[in-house]
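I have been asked to look over a protein record a colleague put together. What it holds is a sequence and that sequence's fold in C-alpha cell form. Please read both lines and tell me whether the C-alpha cells look consistent with the sequence. I do not need a full report, just your reasoning and any doubts. This is what I was given:
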Amino acid sequence: MKKRIWNILSIALFGAALLAVPVGWLCNAGKTFSESERRYLAELPKLSKQSLSDWTFDDATETYLADHLPLRDALVGVNAYATLASGRQVSTDVWADDEGYLLEAPVRKDSAEIQKRMKRIAALAETTGVPTYVLAVPSAGYIRRSHLPGALAALYKDDAILGEIAASETVTFVPLLDRFEREGQGWYYRTDHHWTADGAFAAYEAFSAASGRTALSKDAFYHHSVNGYYGSTRSRSALWLTAPDTLRIDEPIGADVTVSFSDSDTTSDRLFFYEHLGEYDWYPLFLDGNHAITVIENHAAPEDAGTLLMVKDSFGNTLAPLLVSSYRSVVMVDPRYCRESVSQLCKTIGADEILFCYSLERIATDLNLLRLK
C-alpha cells in the first residue's frame, strides 16, 4: 500500500514539474523588460510564410522561450558562477577579481582607430581656436589588474593607449593614470564600470590643475550617500551575489543653478535627480542621465567665470557637478545623441574651454567621435 501511494505521489510530482514549465512560460509571457539584466526581452514572434521558409520563426521562437524561461535569473546566475569557478571567465565581457569587483574586459588596442579619433578632436580644436583638453579615464580592470590572474592582467594595455592619446600636440592631455595607480584601487564601483565620487574628484583636481584653475577642497561640497546601488557590470555578468555599492553625491555649497536639456521644455534648479532611485538604474541620479545637450548655469558665479563646453560620455555626468562652481556655465554635449555641429555650438555659447571627458573604452572605440565637426 505504501509503495502504491509513493508511486502515485511520484507521478503527481513529475506531472506537476512538467506542467510548471509551460505555466511558468505563460506567466512570464507579458514581461517585456528584465530589470536584473537591464535589457528588453524578445517578443513573441509572428508566424508568416516567409518566417517559416527562412527559419527565422524557429530562431525567434527559441530566443523568446529562452528569454521567458521560468526562473531565468536563477539559471543565468548559476551558469555565470559555474563559468567563473571553472576559469572560463575570459570568454565573457565582465571579469571578477579576487575582491569581487566586476571589471570590464580590456579595451581592444587599435592604433589606427585611436589616431582617427584624436585627429577629429585636434581638428575641432583648430577650427574653434579654443583651448581643448582630453581627459581619458583608465579602466577599472587596468587599475585593479593586480587582483586578477597574471594572464588576464597582461591583456590590459591602458598605458599604451593613453600614451597614444597624449601624443597629440594640438590638445592638452589631462594625466590621471599615475595617481589612479597609486591611490585609485577603490575609485571604481564594485558592480559598475564608472568611477566613484573619489575618482571623479581626483579627475576634477587634475583638470583644474591642467587648465590653470584652483580646485575647491572637499569641504566646499555637501556629501550625501545612498546605499544599495547595483550597476551595469553586475547586470551583464549575472553574478547576482556581488555586494551592492554606495553612491556618494558631492553637491557644491552655494551654487545657484538652472539646468536645462535640449530634449525637454522644462528646467530644473537641481544637479541631482533623486527620483531615479526608484528605478532599476540609479546612475541617472547625476544630471538626469544622458541627454544630447545639457546646459548648467551657475548664477552664483562671477560674470567673467567663463563657459566650459564638455563633450562627454556618462563619466562626465559625475564630473560636471564638481566643475559648476568654477564656471558661469557648463554645457555638456553627448555625441551619441547629438548631431549638431560642436564647433558651431562652441561659437554660439562663447565657450572659453573645451573638455573631452571619456572613458578609455569610449574614446578608443566610439564611432560618434569620428563625426565631430
About this structure: Residues 2-72 form one domain. The two ends are 85 Å apart (CA to CA).
